[in-house]
Design goal:
By secondary structure, the protein is mainly α. The longest helix is centred in the last third of the chain and has 29 residues. A two-stranded antiparallel sheet has the order 1-2. It has 3 helices and 2 strands. The radius of gyration is 14 Å and the shape is elongated. α1 runs antiparallel to α3 and α2 crosses α3.
Length: 76
């Protein structure tokens, strides 16, 4: 259960960071790779920035969750 909380917290942090700084790596690279048009907007946000933010939140959230899980297993 704590692992899910870690994932959600890291997801929200990186979602916010990427919305503020759209060029954060990995999500930006994935958005480019799937050819998201950088000029399309939805509710005042660029779709490319929103997609990058979601990708970054998921990727970095999973990494943080894996690190947390490995550390917890090592403690036992």
């Amino acid at each position: 259960m704590k692992g899910a909380i870690i994932f959600i917290i890291v997801f929200l942090i990186f979602l916010g960071i990427t919305l503020a700084y759209a060029e954060l790596p990995l999500g930006n690279t994935i958005s480019d790779a799937i050819n998201i048009d950088p000029n399309v907007e939805w509710s005042g946000l660029r779709v490319r920035t929103l997609a990058s933010a979601i990708f970054n939140g998921i990727i970095y959230g999973v990494i943080a969750w894996l690190i947390y899980t490995i550390v917890e297993k090592a403690r036992k």
